[in-house]
Design brief:
Elements (H helix, E strand, L loop, with lengths): L11 E2 L6 E9 L8 E13 L9 E7 L1 E6 L2 E6 L3 E4 L5 E5 L5 E8 L5
Antiparallel strand pairs: 1-2, 2-3, 3-9, 4-7, 4-9, 5-6, 5-8
Length: 115
């Protein structure tokens, strides 16, 4: 069993090409003994976005706060706090903050996708 207290792992800025105003905290990972999946907390500042990208694993997302758009190949899907999202393997995507405050969401991926 692993217990991580609120605030113990604060989000840190991501410096990846195409990312603007994005921070990530690794909440549970392989180093914590997770056998198959990792949970991360993302925060995207107002006007910010993740890079447009694809990979061979899924994202399972739960939106905590804010409003955003999931941009995929030719489609935009609006979402907000309390919504859940599945980004399928190999689906090109990015998350865009469309609100005035921070966009915060939990993202669960297989361990191979946790970098």
């Amino acid at each position: 069993m692993k217990h991580v207290k609120k605030g113990e792992r604060a989000p840190r800025p991501i410096s990846v090409e195409g990312a603007t105003g994005v921070s990530k905290a690794g909440l549970i990972a392989e180093a914590d003994g997770a056998p198959g999946a990792a949970m991360r907390l993302f925060e995207i500042a107002a006007g910010g976005n993740t890079p447009f990208h694809a990979h061979d694993w899924e994202h399972v997302v739960y939106v905590l706060d804010g409003q955003g758009t999931l941009e995929t190949q030719g489609k935009s899907t609006e979402f907000g706090a309390g919504d859940t999202i599945l980004v399928e393997p190999d689906e090109e995507h990015n998350f865009v903050n469309r609100g005035e405050g921070a966009l915060r969401f939990l993202c669960v991926v297989p361990l191979r996708g946790d970098s």
